[in-house]
Design goal:
The complex is a heterodimer of chains A (80) and B (378). Chain A has 80 residues and is of the alpha+beta class. Chain A has a single domain, classed as 2-Layer Sandwich (Translation Initiation Factor IF3). Chain A contains two helices and four strands, in the order βαβαββ. In chain A, strands 1-2-4-3 form a four-stranded mixed β-sheet, covered by helices on one side. The termini of chain A are far apart. The relative contact order of chain A is 0.26. Chain B has two domains: 181 residues, 3-Layer(bba) Sandwich (FAD/NAD(P)-binding domain); 135 residues, FAD/NAD(P)-binding domain (3-Layer(bba) Sandwich). In chain B, helix 1 links the parallel strand 1 and strand 2. Chain B contains nine helices and 22 strands. The radius of gyration of chain B is 21 Å and the shape is globular. Chain B has 378 residues and is an alpha/beta fold. Chains A and B meet through helix 1 and helix 2 of A and loops of B.
Chain lengths: 80, 378
């Protein structure tokens, strides 16, 4: 069952590709507060792996990667 | 009726655009005016060679006024405001200009001051002055840790940091001090370049040459006392010589004219290059926010598309061709070798191989650029 969450910030990077979506996510992260939930929409398949790797390395929490209709949703929680 | 075409910017994008348009239109049909204030026209790709003493910088600069073909009005002035609603451009000298077509080719700018400590600690090769300063520092370098990387994305000529790294490896070997130096390369993504197959290839060459790389390194701060940089991800890297691509932004006048946000890059239609709902306002080169390389090669393809389109419209034809994001660029891999990448919005670069011929292509590219590409004949 899909984990329930309410995004504090939604970053719609659909239609752009690497490095656009990850850079948009990092930009949103920089202005977010601790415990904020950021949701990234992307149509670029590589973003699923890139964003997950960045979230892990930066010590934040990956809530999930979800297949939506025609795009992916990557959800993270800023824990730092 | 004479169509009035106004081009803002005298860098690669503006100059190629003006010269190509002049070739494709008659003077009785179109008047072409360029507004620009560049002190000189610098062939930026030579920035990877000049600091290493491989090229004389005088081969890489020309006076902008001599680069425009006959029949183009070149005005030395600075754009102060762009009012697309009223088809008006104002300049610092107090003049104002109207247009039938407006082409914004104002490029982007380096903003090292946005990272505290950058200007006192970091060197770079993204301007002629900085390249010459880095040349001096490298000539005094006897050994230690050199850290190279982009401080943020986007930046001009995405392959330049790895190209410079390869050339630096060769330079240190030729000076006989490679064994006294560690070369570290840091990149913001989880690979060493944006395009995955290019990255795999570069990574393999880094391994062969003993270049140490760090991925997912998004620069946050520079500590000059400790001689270290810290990433957003919490990693610290030390250095004896720090070579960082400065942060980039679009021009202030773009933001102040309401054409873009604080980053200064203009959103354009990705297949027509026009701004918003305006079918007579176009943006080319580094000024756009398109998800493709900020490079002269990109501007060259965009200018070719746009000049063809505008010339067709002036002739009374409907231009149906779409811009597809095509770029071709040759990138150096050290040891007098290079490879050439061809790609577009939808077509990733194909498998690549290094060759001496590609290196010669890169080595002579300033001549090709000034005599052919910039003149609009290629």
């Amino acid at each position: 069952m899909e984990k329930q969450f309410t995004a504090t910030k939604v970053v719609d990077a659909r239609g752009t590709f690497c490095p656009g979506p990850l850079m948009e996510l990092i930009k949103a992260y920089k202005s977010a507060k601790t415990n904020d939930i950021i949701s990234l929409y992307s149509t670029d398949t590589g973003t699923k792996r890139d964003a997950a790797a960045w979230i892990s390395k930066s010590g934040n929490e990956l809530i999930g990667v979800f297949d939506r209709e025609g795009y992916y949703e990557i959800v993270m929680k800023k824990t730092k | 009726m004479v169509v009035n075409i106004l081009i803002l910017g005298d860098g690669a994008a503006g100059t190629i655009m003006a010269n190509k348009l002049r070739f494709l239109t008659n003077r009785e049909d179109a008047e072409i005016t360029v507004i620009g204030n560049s002190k000189y026209h610098y062939f930026k790709p030579d920035g990877i060679h000049i600091p290493l003493g491989m090229k004389d910088y005088r081969e890489s600069v020309k006076s902008p006024q001599f680069l425009f073909n006959y029949g183009i009005n070149y005005l030395r002035d600075t754009v102060a405001g762009i009012d697309v609603e009223n088809r008006n451009v104002s300049t610092l000298s107090g003049k104002s200009y109207t247009y039938d077509y407006l082409i914004i080719a104002t490029g982007d700018r380096l903003v090292p001051e946005e990272i505290p400590g950058f200007e006192s600690e970091a060197s770079h090769f993204y301007s002629l002055e900085a390249s010459l300063d880095l040349k001096r520092k490298l000539s005094e370098f006897k050994g230690g840790k050199i850290l190279i990387g982009p401080s943020s994305i986007p930046y001009q000529c995405p392959p330049a940091p790895y190209e410079f790294t390869f050339q630096l490896d060769r330079y240190l070997r030729r000076r006989g001090i490679r064994d006294k130096a560690e070369i570290h390369y840091a990149f913001p993504l989880n690979r060493v370049f944006t395009m995955e197959n290019v990255s795999n290839y570069v990574q393999k060459l880094f391994d062969e040459k003993g270049i140490i790389y760090h991925t997912l390194f998004n620069l946050e701060s520079i500590n000059g006392e400790k001689k270290s940089v810290t990433s957003l991800e919490g990693e610290d890297l030390g250095y004896d010589l720090l070579i960082l691509v400065p942060p980039h932004k679009g021009q202030k006048v773009i933001t102040e004219s309401g054409l873009a946000d604080d980053q200064g890059y203009i959103m354009v239609d990705r297949h027509h290059l026009n701004y918003g709902s305006y079918d007579n306002v176009f943006v080319i080169g580094d000024a756009t926010d398109l998800p493709i390389s900020k490079a002269g090669a990109t501007a060259h393809f965009q200018a070719e598309y746009l000049a063809g389109r505008i010339a067709s419209e002036i002739s009374g034809f409907v231009a149906e061709e779409l811009y597809d994001g095509s770029v071709a660029c040759t990138t150096v891999t050290g040891d007098e070798k290079a490879f050439t990448l061809y790609f577009s919005y939808t077509r990733p670069p194909r498998a690549m191989f290094q060759s001496k011929l590609d290196y010669i292509l890169k080595w002579t590219s300033a001549d090709t650029y000034f005599s052919g590409m910039l003149r609009g004949v290629m």
